[in-house]
Automatic annotation (TrEMBL):
Species lineage: Eukaryota, Metazoa, Chordata, Craniata, Vertebrata
Top-level taxon: Eukaryota
GO cellular component: nucleus
PANTHER family, sorted: G2_M PHASE-SPECIFIC E3 UBIQUITIN-PROTEIN LIGASE, PHD FINGER PROTEIN
Gene3D superfamilies xrefs: Hect, E3 ligase catalytic domains, Zinc/RING finger domain, C3HC4 (zinc finger)
Source species of the chain: Fregetta grallaria
SUPFAM superfamilies cross-referenced by the UniProt entry: FYVE/PHD zinc finger, Hect, E3 ligase catalytic domain
Domain PHD-type: 1-81
Name listed for the protein in its UniProt record: G2E3 ligase
């Protein structure tokens, strides 16, 4: 190379090595001489025709060259660079840079740029570049008129680099944390809550509702005589604004509401808020209840027969013999499904490696310690999990056996069943807990259930069929039932609509719960008694499914851990047996099938099996203080058989020992000969 004197042919270091035979000339591409600093390595050239200037990027900036970060990424030297044109009539002088607010001269200079969309908007080039780097391509725009397209096009032409990224304030962690703080204070003149104005207990009469307009005022439900399902409330300030604008002109008002205290005295309360200030509720009710057939749309189904309450239906009971036979067949079918699940989970467990992750668990605070463990940086669902139970008062030795893992997952599933993430009595659905949504707890719960199943823990066993079907088939393909509604008030409202026996009583019921139906988006024309069926269906879908669609999706994502949800969708019947049903009660037959007898040479295997089966039958019939669950716990550390089964499989050995020994590591029960 005639410039650097090296013979190296190293494109990544010196650029392409070119030889021009006609000129007897060899150069590296990067070894061009800079026209500014006169040193080698200038790789940028001016694109103007016949201009041979080349320069380093820093040297070009210093010499006020223009580099365009768009299209062909052109570069212009100080002589051929583009300039902004200003009308001759335009006044010259000084103005404020609309970014830094310092003075800027209104002159066509390299360091000064003018907005193409605003006549009197001037900027320092340096200020614009800082603004562009911070705002990114999505938010970089004129600071005066907010124009984006025209402004960006001109700034790119004049050499402002606008990176293709999100704004820096969008990328900052917890940037909007302050906005997540909810106002929680009762501002009613006379607050009835004995625990104070700041006390807030969700799903009770002491839950605080915020003003739907400003969000900066609140009230306890009881303090404004509101029901739990009423969503709309406006504070006095907002209502006064609406009143002045005339929006409340047609509303029926009360000045004060009275409420009886528990001691018999009467106190004055702020009037409960009108729910729909924009339109008279009476006119909406009349419209929906009396609109003729032209309002019937969406392919409403023809009128069906009136559904009677369960007490009025004629039912036929099965004979005891038939009932027992069906129950026996059902149990047999469930066992078959659980064997299928066991094989599927064993297949999924092949993903688990020998690398261990230890979780320090406080049994008295199972949820927080489990959450902390699952969120720790080194936790991976594919690692082998070891559990160390700790106690705040006493330090215990590490217990990393399978028994401690069984206990951990049992406690965790029990906590989830009784947590605020689920609602219902025995068959549960997801609830709507805004705090849990914000903290991503539904995802963590789904993840914990998936990990429990694959790592040998118990199944939840408390899902409703509706929840399970939403997870497997998608919420859009599921039809909920009245039994899925956990809220007593909502269930009562649905029953009143469902069992209305005349059109007038149906309209009266809708009139009474009008605000609830409006808030749920379930108002529909009612022209015939059969319209109640569609209305009931709308309410059920809203309350059971649409209301919790965000928690449901988050929960599904958690269940995808280790491929569990995918297998659930492939084998729905099999997985339903462990998600929607508790483990079957242990029987002598189940325990006998679970254990394999390994006898020594001086023990007759048949005699050993006879003794073992006879003993289990005695326990099952209640002739011993020991239960079958005690035996399983003694050997394996678990009260029930996990869906995946035990690893290793439980065995029995007859040995020359004095007392029975439960060896939990190999799941072996050692019995005296």
């Amino acid at each position: 190379c005639v410039l650097c004197g090296r013979t190296d042919d190293c494109p990544e270091k010196y650029g392409e090595k070119r030889t021009y035979v006609e000129h007897n000339l060899t150069v590296h591409y990067y070894c061009l001489k800079c026209n500014i600093c006169k040193k080698k390595g200038a790789s940028i050239g001016c694109v103007a025709p016949k201009c041979k200037r080349s320069y380093h990027f820093p040297c070009g900036i210093q010499k006020e060259c223009i580099f365009q970060f768009m299209e062909d990424f052109r570069s212009y030297c100080w002589e051929h660079k583009p300039v902004q044109k200003f009308p001759d009539k335009e006044s010259r002088g000084t103005s404020q840079c609309t970014i830094c607010l310092d003075l800027v001269e209104q002159l066509p200079m390299y360091t000064v740029l003018k907005s193409p969309c605003c006549k009197n908007a001037w900027f320092h080039r340096e200020c614009l570049q800082y603004q562009a780097l911070s705002a990114g391509i999505f938010f970089f725009r004129c600071t005066v008129c907010n124009n984006k397209d025209k402004f960006q096009k001109e700034m790119l032409r004049m050499g402002i680099h606008i990176p293709e990224k999100d704004a820096s304030w969008e990328l900052e962690e917890n940037a909007y944390q302050d906005l997540l703080q909810c106002y929680q204070h009762c501002d009613i003149k006379r607050c009835l809550c004995k625990k104070g104005r700041d006390y807030n207990e969700p799903d009770s009469k002491w839950e605080i509702k915020r003003c739907q307009c400003c969000g900066s005022r609140g009230t306890h439900l009881a303090c404004s005589s509101m029901k739990s399902w009423e969503q709309n409330w406006e504070c006095m300030e907002c209502r006064s604004i609406f009143a002045k604008s005339g929006n409340y002109g047609k509303q029926k008002k009360r000045s004060l509401a009275t409420s009886e205290k528990t001691d018999g005295t009467t106190c004055l309360l702020e009037e409960p808020s009108p729910k729909y200030p924009r339109q008279s509720p009476q006119s909406q009710r009349n419209f929906l209840l009396q609109t003729p057939k032209i309002m019937c749309q969406n392919n409403l189904s023809p009128c069906s027969h009136l559904e009677l309450p369960a007490s009025n239906r004629v039912t036929m009971s099965l004979s005891p013999l038939m009932s027992n036979r069906n129950w026996s067949l059902r149990k047999k079918h469930l066992r078959k499904q659980r064997r299928e699940v066991s094989n599927i989970l064993k297949e999924l467990k092949l993903q688990v490696n020998t690398k261990t992750t230890r979780l320090n668990i406080n049994a008295e605070n199972i949820w927080n310690s489990a959450l902390k463990g699952f969120r720790q940086r080194n936790f991976s669902p594919t690692n082998t999990i070891e559990i160390k139970f700790t106690n705040c008062k006493t330090r215990s030795k590490p217990d990393t056996s399978a028994a401690s893992k069984h206990r951990f997952f049992q406690l965790l599933m029990l906590h989830l069943q009784n947590s605020s993430l689920f609602e219902g009595s025995s068959a549960k659905n997801l609830s709507l807990d805004f705090q849990a949504v914000k903290e991503n707890l539904y995802f963590e719960a789904g993840k914990m259930i998936a990990v429990s199943l694959v790592h040998g823990g118990p199944s939840p066993g408390f899902f409703s069929k509706t929840l399970f079907n939403c997870l497997v088939y998608g919420p859009e393909n599921v039809k909920p039932a009245l039994e899925d509604v956990a809220d007593v008030d909502v269930a009562q409202t649905i029953k009143m609509i469902k069992y209305a026996n005349s059109l007038s009583s149906l309209r009266s019921t809708i009139h009474n719960c009008y605000e609830f139906l409006a808030a749920a988006g379930c108002l529909r024309p009612v022209t015939a008694l059969c319209d109640k069926n569609m209305l009931v269906n709308d309410i059920l879908i809203h309350h059971v499914i649409k209301r919790i669609i965000s928690p449901l999706e988050s929960f599904r994502q958690g269940l995808k851990t280790l491929g569990v949800l995918e297998k659930m969708q492939m084998h729905p019947d099999a997985f339903s047996s462990i998600f929607c049903h508790k483990p079957e009660r242990l029987s002598a037959e189940t325990i006998c099938d679970l254990f394999t007898i390994h006898s020594s040479s001086d023990v007759n295997k048949v005699e050993g099996a006879d003794f073992w089966m006879g003993y289990l039958q005695d326990v099952e019939s209640g002739e011993s203080v020991v239960t079958l669950e005690d035996i399983l716990l003694f050997v394996t550390g678990s009260f029930s058989i996990p869906p995946i089964g035990f690893d290793p499989e439980p065995t029995i050995k007859f040995l020359h020992i004095r007392y029975p020994i439960g060896n939990r590591l190999p799941n072996c029960l050692e019995l005296p000969i």
